[in-house]
Amino acid sequence: MLNQYFADLHIHVGMNESGKWVKIPTSRRLTVRGILQEAAERKGMDIVGIVDALSPLVLADIKRLTDEGLLVSVSGGGYLYKDSTLLVLGAEIETREPGGGLAHTLIFVPDIQTMSAFSSYMSQFIRNISLSSQNAHMPLKQLINIASSFNSLIVPAHVFTPHKSLYGVCCDRLAHILSDQEMNKLAAIELGLSADSDMADRISELSGYTFITNSDAHSLDKIAREYNVLAMSGLSFQELSWALARTEGRRIKGNYGLDPRLGKYHRTFCTGCGYIDTGGFTDHQCPECAGNSLVKGVFDRINQIADYPEPHHPPHRPCYFYQIPLEFIPGLGKISINKLLAEFKTEMNIVHYTSHAELVRVGGSKIADFIISARAGTATIAAGGGGIYGRLVKM
Question: In whole angstroms, what is the distance from residue 178 CA to residue 172 CA?
Answer without folding.
Answer: 12
